[in-house]
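User: quick one, fold this
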Amino acid sequence: MKQIAIISPSVRDERVGHRVALYLKKYFEENSIAKVDLLDLKEFDFPLFNERLMYQKNPSEKLLDFSERVNKADGIIIVSSVYNYSFPASLKNAIDVLYPEWNRKVVALSSATMGIVEGLPTTFQLENILSQMKAIVSPVKFFAINIANEYTEDGDAVNKEKTDKKLKPMVDEFMFLVDKLSN
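Assistant:
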């Protein structure tokens, strides 16, 4: 069974976007699609990096653990909160500290917003950055909207059937790429 990682980047105290990462984890596990490693950036509590991991003289244990878990994953799903039509600085920080780890890594993108407008600009920006780092970004995205009302704190979808149906195309394309392109 393939190993994927889901990155949940919001580090706010009252974050809501993490609910969508929990929902994706449950979806993969309930449907026996892949083993899931949830990389919660709030738990890593990274400082602002001033250098890529490969050039750091004394990287932290948390950073080495994060890098190892990204390396070990056959594919990565990033569930990005939408901040001012973009993504959180914590995510940019976590992406930029790595470099060779993204090379040919299959990545799927999801946005999570409290509003009713999909986070398309957020995923476009992430796709551009990751493509420049030579990641293989899946063309099919998952857009979660109105997340405070559509997902519980435990990551359950209020309307599971509708949400699962909306998520399935992204998962199918992502897993196709993972199966074809991962080692």
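User: anything notable?
Assistant: The chain has a mean pLDDT of 94.
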